[in-house]
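Take a look at my tokenised protein here and describe the backbone shape.
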Amino acid sequence: MSQGQRLPNPPEAGIVNALRFTRTPLRFLEGIQSRYPDAAEVSVPGGPSIVVVTNPDLCHEAMDRIDDFSRVPASGAAALIAENGLVQTEGDLWQRQRETIAPGFGSDPLRTYVDRVGEQTARLRGEWADAVESGDTDRDLHRDMTTVTVRAATEALFGTDIGAEGAARMHRLMRQAGAEFEISATAITPEWLPLPLSDRAQTVGEGLKTMGEEILETKRADHDPENPSDMLDFLMLAEQHADWPENHLRDQVVTFLIAGHETTALSTTYTQALMSWHPEVREKVRAEAREVIGDDDPGHEHAQKLTYTGQVFTEALRLYPPAWAVIRRADGDQTLGGYAVDDGSIVFLPQWSVHRDERFFENPAQFDPSRWDDRGPGDKGPYFAFASGPHACIGRGFAINGARVALATLTKDFDVDVPRDALSDLLVTPTLRPGDGVDATISRAE
């Protein structure tokens, strides 16, 4: 039993709270956030307790203490995809992977990625222009942004553009994965009661691994060990000089095939929805884009100058963080902020509810990019869309700069109108995802 003050428990029975969490997780987190200033514990019969941390200082402390609060090991359907990928591993293996991969996220790869985002967004802009000309103005905004980000990511990280067909295939697989990985009552099933994997989970896992193998096969044909330039080059070089787990390269490719595009595709989709509902913000983004980009080809050279667009993106991530919570497991009995956290407890560090807490943000439900006039998204505090600590998102710079360029490029020339209820029923999977896409209507901006 841990030393320290016992965490408060919500008054309802543990199983009732646990079921509420699995049925309406975001609403449940908001309820805990409003009632408990630091954290609360929900007992789960037959399984580990759920600890929800509501104090951002304690969230950052837990993320810093990676030996005490580790990642939850992949299991079930998730283990089918990339068991040895960077977002799953721990300890010495994670350290070696991080050090090997880091050069692939340096300044030159960043420039390549943002330039590729500019190229792909310009391609989409041309596609939209043709669609408006023909009167076909209805779009699935999330699918469009997936195409932009996954093609840019695969080219920058793996040295290959998977093309429109590959992007469409990835979008289908991720939609299937979203339905399969949505939080449900199985999330609180005792560990001693294993559940069979569905046929759909098997199909998604095999589909993603097949894409990973295809990318690897293409890379092996073109790999130049004397001139490494992207993340996969550095991984392949390291594989020649050290022992790695079986399927290590494929697992890294699949990990970054997903992580390299998904959160940026989601967040740029949600940002455009919010701009649709706040046309005054959209007009300011458009004015900045026309001043900064003008008639140039959009790319890395413009990213840092798109400061207001960056604030809009940051504010959208505050309200709709694709990574809605960091989830950790207590390794041994721990204390956190003087509170006892028992061995094996599942610890939620929820961006969703902390970002919406009026203790930390004035009028938290309001979409207000100006709140970032005097505070930066990198300030360690109640905003942690990219997590923090040693396991913080390695691709943060890619996401922020790429999103600025993509948003500015499209907003410069188009109005994107999204129904007001488009984000009202997001699927709570490892990321917040639209269940059936995000319908949008595009038109030429004045």
In short: The radius of gyration is 22 Å. The first helix runs from residue 14 to 23.
